[in-house]
Amino acid sequence: MSDYSHIVDAVPVSLPLGKVVCVGRNYADHAKELNNPLPSEPVLFIKPSTALADINQPIGIPTTWDCCHFETEMAILIGGTLTCCSEQQAADAIAGVGIALDLTLRDLQSELKQKSLPWEKAKAFDGACPTSAFVTLPIAELQNQQIQLRQNGHLRQDGNSAAMLTPVLPLLVYISQFFTLQPGDIVLTGTPAGVGPLTLGDELQLNLSTKLNLSTHIIERP
Ligand code: ZN
Question: How far is the CA of 25 from the centre of ligand 1 (A)?
Answer without folding.
Answer: 7
